[in-house]
């Protein structure tokens, strides 16, 4: 055994329990799921599973319901994460920089309260807000404006709004911390030079917090791709699959249709979508400002 190896072993020894737990509870289940995705395992009606190769993946890309779920997942992610949570979080953080302390405390408390609510509870609250006899239609009727069953006519927009309402607090906290790190001398100098608020935001603020934007987008996107309980409580993916994102489609195939192998293959494809988003954001984070 070389001297380098002898010096390295004492350093690795304290990490051994953590590595063992990661292999047992993280790497092991992932490897098992990958194996299942290449089989025809079912919950019922089957004595034992058999290896089917890439048949589950070919079936997915030939399934109109799967392609619809992919499209709705992208729409849901873009609307609620990339546009909704990210933009609203930045706007709230920027406004709170100039607000008084009582206003900052009240606004921050309201936004964070929505974030800490369990996903199922938030789903029931937004269901009560958007349903035909819900709060939104009651307000529209009081204003003599046309109302409708939002969960039936615009289900993907309703669940996207719900995810924005629940998750904006995280973006607000990230951007508040990033904005506090910008030296006040820079913004004050730009203001003295005559730069307006929008110009300062575009040419000074956004470039200086670009890394925070990339980090926030990556974390928000990965969280949004895995949203299940919120949509399940509000619409259960309906009506007619018009709000059925990939997590709901995966659940339906694996546990309602008992197709564990096919559902696991869909889960791996969802993991691939998240990995692609992560690669894009990591590329942005590596770019020098």
Briefly note the CATH topology name: MetI-like fold
Shape: globular
Distance between the termini: 45 Å
Total number of domains: 1
Secondary-structure-derived class: mainly alpha
Number of helices: 15
What is the helix fraction of residues, given as a range?
Answer: over 70%
List the helices and strands and how they pair.
Blueprint: H1 3-12, H2 16-37, H3 55-61, H4 64-98, H5 101-116, H6 119-130, H7 135-142, H8 150-153, H9 155-180, H10 184-192, H11 197-208, H12 210-225, H13 229-234, H14 246-256, H15 260-286
Helix pairs in contact: 2-15, 3-15, 4-9, 4-12, 5-9, 6-9, 9-12, 10-11, 12-15, 14-15
What are its keywords?
289 residues, mainly alpha, MetI-like fold, 0% strand, 15 helices
Give a structural overview.
With 289 residues, the chain is mainly α. Helices cover 76% and strands 0% of the residues. α14 (246-256) runs antiparallel to α15. It is globular and about 75 Å long. The mean pLDDT is 86.
Concise structural overview:
Helices cover 76% and strands 0% of the residues. By secondary structure, the protein is mainly alpha-helical. Helix 6 packs across helix 9 (155-180) and helix 12 (210-225) packs antiparallel against helix 15 (260-286).
């Amino acid at each position: 055994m070389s001297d380098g190896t002898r010096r390295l072993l004492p350093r690795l020894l304290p990490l051994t329990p953590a590595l063992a737990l990661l292999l047992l509870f993280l790497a092991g289940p992932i490897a098992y799921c990958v194996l299942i995705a290449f089989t025809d395992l079912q919950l019922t009606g089957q004595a034992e599973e058999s290896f089917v190769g890439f048949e589950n993946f070919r079936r997915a890309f030939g399934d109109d319901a799967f392609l619809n779920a992919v499209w709705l997942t992208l729409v849901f992610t873009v609307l609620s994460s990339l546009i909704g949570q990210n933009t609203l979080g930045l706007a709230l953080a920027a406004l709170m920089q100039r607000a008084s302390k009582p206003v900052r405390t009240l606004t921050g408390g309201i936004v964070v309260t929505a974030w800490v609510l369990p996903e199922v509870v938030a789903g029931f609250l937004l269901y009560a807000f958007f349903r035909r006899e819900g709060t939104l239609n009651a307000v529209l009727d009081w204003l003599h404006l046309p109302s409708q069953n939002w969960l039936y006519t615009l289900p993907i927009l309703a669940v996207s709004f719900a995810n924005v309402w629940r998750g904006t607090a995280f973006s607000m906290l990230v951007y508040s911390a990033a904005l506090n790190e910008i030296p006040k001398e820079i913004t004050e100098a730009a203001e003295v030079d005559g730069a307006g608020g929008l110009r300062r935001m575009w040419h000074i603020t956004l470039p200086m917090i670009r890394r925070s934007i990339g980090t926030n987008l990556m974390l928000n996107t990965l969280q949004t791709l895995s949203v299940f309980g919120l949509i399940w409580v509000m619409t259960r993916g309906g009506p007619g699959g018009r709000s059925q994102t990939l997590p709901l489609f995966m659940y339906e195939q694996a546990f309602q249709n008992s197709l564990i192998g096919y559902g696991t293959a869909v889960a791996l494809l969802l993991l691939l979508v998240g990995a692609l988003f992560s690669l894009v954001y990591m590329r942005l984070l590596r770019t020098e400002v």
